[in-house]
C-alpha cells in the first residue's frame, strides 16, 4: 500500500442525526496521501451523507472532520472556500451548470480562481477533456450530451485545478464498461503519478476492486469492515460477502417499511460493528 | 439582462398601450359629463407616470422574469448545481444573484419609462381619433400637466419594486427543497409574494410621496 504517512482526511467520532435517527454513528477513519479509498454500502447506509460532511456542505451533530490537517466542521464559509480550492468533487449527476457549455463548465474554476490568460485556460480545458475522452465537445451544452458524458465532464471540471484530493460520488454508475475502465484507469493514473488522493463512493464492485487501495464498508451509519481489497474479498463477514457478491439473501435487511427501518436502527445487532476488521492501527 | 429587459418590451408595450387607451376612454366618459374633456391628457399622463406605469410593468416583470428567476435558480438547487458551485469555492450568491439583481435594477425602470411613453401614445390615439383633440394640443396638455416629480416618483417606485421582485425570487429559488414539485411551489410562492409585497409597497410609497408631503 502506498502510504507516505501524511494524513489528508481525519474523521473522528462523526455523528449525524436526523431527528432521533443516527445516520452516521461515531464514524472514525483516516485517509493518507496517495490512497484510493472506496466507500461502499447499500442505499441509505449514509455514504452520501458521509461524503457531504467531508466536503463541508453538511455540519455534523458531533465529532470532527479534518482535511489537510484543518478542522472544517466549525469553519466559516470564507475559510472553508480556501480548503475547497485544494480538492475537487465529482457529483453523481455531474452537476454541470446547464446555462454554460461543456468547455465553459470546465473553465469555470480556472476563471474564478486563477489569473491565467484565456489562451492558457483554453489549453487546459482541452487537455482535461481529452483526459476523459471528450475531445471536441467544448461547444455543446450539457443537455445535448448523454448522462455518462456529463459525468466525465464533471470529472474534467473536478480536475481542472489539479486538486490534491478528489471526491467522487458514484463515478462509474451509468457508464458503459469501456468508459468505466477509462475512468478507473484515469483515477489510478492520477493517484499513482501525482500525489493525488481519491475518495470514491461506489457500489460498482468491479470498479471498486480495480481502483481501491483501501475499502470501507458502511452499514447503518457505522463501519462494517475495512481493509485492502484482498482483505475485503476474503472477509468472513457475511454482510460483506453478501454485498460484494450481490446476493439477495443474507444478513442485510431489505428495510421493507419505514417503521421496520427505524426499529432496525435502534436494536441493531452488534456483532459486525468493526469487531472483526480493525485496521485503524495499521496507519500511524 | 436581455431576458428581463429587451424580450419583455413587446409585452410591456401592448399592456401600456391598452392601459393608455382605456384610461383615455374612461376619462373621456367621466370628464365629459363635467364638461372637462380638456383634462383628459392630464389624467392619462399623471396616472401613468405615478401609478399605472410602475405597477403594471412590475406585474408583467413579476410574471415573466420573477417566476423565471425563481424556477431557474430552484432547478439549479435541486440538480446539485448550487452545491457544485459551493464545492468549487464559488459563492452562489455572487455568481448567480448579483448579475440578476443588477439586470433587474436597470431594466425595470427602463421598461417603466418605455411603458409610460407607449401608454401616453395610447391616450393620444383615443384623443385624436375619437375625441376632438389635435396632436399638438394633446402633447401640450400632457406635458404641461406633469412636472418632473411625477416622473421621478414613478421611477423611485420602480427601483424599489425591482429590488423587491428580485430579492423575493432569488430567495425562493435558493430555498427550494424536494425536486420538481419544490421548484413549482417556489415559483408560485415567488410570484404571489412579490405581487403582494409590490402592491403594499406601492400603497406605502404613494402615501409618502403624495399624501404626507
Attribute tags:
heterodimer, A: 284 residues, alpha/beta, Rossmann fold, 4-stranded antiparallel beta sheet, globular, B: 213 residues, mainly alpha, 0% strand
Strand and helix map with partners:
The complex is a heterodimer of chains A (284) and B (213).
Chain A: E1 7-18, E2 21-32, E3 36-40, H1 47-54, E4 62-67, E5 70-71, H2 77-84, E6 87-90, H3 102-113, H4 118-131, H5 147-158, E7 165-169, H6 177-193, E8 197-201, H7 205-211, E9 214-219, E10 222-227, H8 229-233, H9 238-245, H10 258-266
Helix pairs in contact in A: 3-4, 3-5, 4-5
Chain B: H1 9-33, H2 40-78, H3 81-87, H4 92-130, H5 135-145, H6 148-174, H7 179-212
What does this structure look like?
The complex is a heterodimer of chains A (284) and B (213). Chain A has helices spanning 47-54, 77-84, 102-113, 118-131, 147-158, 177-193, 205-211, 229-233, 238-245, 258-266; strands at 7-18, 21-32, 36-40, 62-67, 70-71, 87-90, 165-169, 197-201, 214-219, 222-227. Chain A has a six-stranded mixed sheet with strand order 6-7-8-3-9-10, with helices on both faces. Chain A has a four-stranded antiparallel sheet with strand order 2-1-4-5. Chain A is globular and about 55 Å long. With 284 residues, chain A is an alpha/beta fold. With 213 residues, chain B is mainly α. Chain B has one domain (6-207). Chain B starts with 8 loop residues before the first helix and ends with a helix. The model of chain B has no long low-confidence stretch (mean pLDDT 83). The A-B interface holds A 55, 57, 77, 81-82, 84-85, 89, 91-93, 95-98, 108-109, 112-113, 154, 157 and B 75-76, 79-81, 83-91.
Amino acid at each position: 500500500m502506498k502510504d507516505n504517512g501524511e494524513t489528508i482526511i481525519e474523521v473522528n467520532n462523526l455523528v449525524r442525526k436526523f431527528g432521533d435517527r443516527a445516520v452516521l454513528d461515531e464514524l472514525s477513519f483516516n485517509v493518507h496521501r496517495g490512497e484510493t479509498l472506496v466507500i461502499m454500502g447499500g442505499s441509505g447506509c449514509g455514504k452520501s451523507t458521509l461524503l457531504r460532511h467531508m466536503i463541508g456542505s453538511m455540519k455534523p451533530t458531533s465529532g470532527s472532520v479534518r482535511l489537510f490537517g484543518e478542522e472544517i466542521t466549525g469553519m466559516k464559509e470564507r475559510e472553508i472556500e480556501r480548503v475547497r480550492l485544494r480538492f475537487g468533487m465529482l457529483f453523481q449527476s455531474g452537476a454541470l451548470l446547464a446555462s454554460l457549455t461543456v468547455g465553459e463548465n470546465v473553465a469555470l474554476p480556472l476563471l474564478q480562481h486563477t489569473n491565467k490568460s484565456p489562451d492558457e485556460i483554453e489549453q487546459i480545458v482541452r487537455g482535461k477533456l481529452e483526459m476523459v475522452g471528450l475531445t471536441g465537445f467544448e461547444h455543446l451544452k450539457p443537455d445535448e450530451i448523454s448522462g455518462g458524458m456529463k459525468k466525465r465532464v464533471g470529472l474534467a471540471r473536478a480536475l481542472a485545478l489539479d486538486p490534491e484530493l478528489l471526491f467522487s460520488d458514484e463515478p462509474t454508475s451509468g457508464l458503459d464498461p469501456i468508459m468505466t475502465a477509462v475512468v478507473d484507469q484515469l483515477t489510478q493514473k492520477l493517484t499513482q503519478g501525482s500525489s493525488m488522493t481519491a475518495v470514491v463512493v461506489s457500489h460498482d464492485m468491479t470498479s471498486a476492486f480495480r481502483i481501491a487501495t483501501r475499502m470501507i464498508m458502511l452499514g447503518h451509519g457505522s463501519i462494517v469492515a475495512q481493509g485492502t481489497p484482498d482483505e475485503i474479498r476474503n472477509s468472513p463477514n457475511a454482510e460483506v460477502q453478501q454485498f460484494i457478491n450481490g446476493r439477495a439473501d443474507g444478513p442485510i435487511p431489505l428495510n421493507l417499511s419505514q417503521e421496520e427501518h427505524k426499529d432496525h436502527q435502534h436494536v441493531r445487532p452488534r456483532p459486525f460493528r468493526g469487531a472483526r476488521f480493525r485496521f485503524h492501527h495499521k496507519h500511524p | 439582462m436581455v431576458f428581463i429587459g429587451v424580450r419583455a418590451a413587446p409585452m410591456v408595450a401592448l399592456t401600456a398601450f391598452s392601459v393608455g387607451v382605456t384610461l383615455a376612454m374612461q376619462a373621456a366618459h367621466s370628464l365629459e359629463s363635467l364638461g372637462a374633456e380638456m383634462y383628459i391628457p392630464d389624467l392619462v399622463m399623471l396616472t401613468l407616470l405615478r401609478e399605472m406605469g410602475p405597477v403594471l410593468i412590475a406585474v408583467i416583470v413579476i410574471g415573466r422574469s420573477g417566476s423565471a428567476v425563481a424556477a431557474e435558480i430552484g432547478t439549479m438547487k435541486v440538480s446539485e448545481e448550487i452545491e457544485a458551485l459551493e464545492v468549487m469555492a464559488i459563492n452562489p450568491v455572487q455568481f448567480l444573484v448579483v448579475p440578476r439583481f443588477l439586470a433587474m435594477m436597470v431594466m425595470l425602470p427602463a421598461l417603466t419609462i418605455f411603458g409610460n411613453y407607449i401608454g401616453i401614445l395610447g391616450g393620444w390615439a383615443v384623443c385624436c381619433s375619437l375625441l376632438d383633440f389635435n396632436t399638438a394640443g394633446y402633447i401640450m396638455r400632457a406635458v404641461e400637466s406633469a412636472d418632473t416629480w411625477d416622473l421621478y416618483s414613478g421611477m423611485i417606485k420602480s427601483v424599489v419594486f425591482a429590488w423587491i421582485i428580485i430579492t423575493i425570487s432569488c430567495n425562493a429559488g435558493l430555498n427550494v427543497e424536494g425536486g420538481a414539485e419544490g421548484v413549482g411551489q417556489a415559483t408560485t410562492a415567488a410570484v404571489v409574494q412579490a405581487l403582494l409585497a409590490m402592491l403594499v409597497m406601492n400603497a406605502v410609497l404613494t402615501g409618502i410621496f403624495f399624501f404626507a408631503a
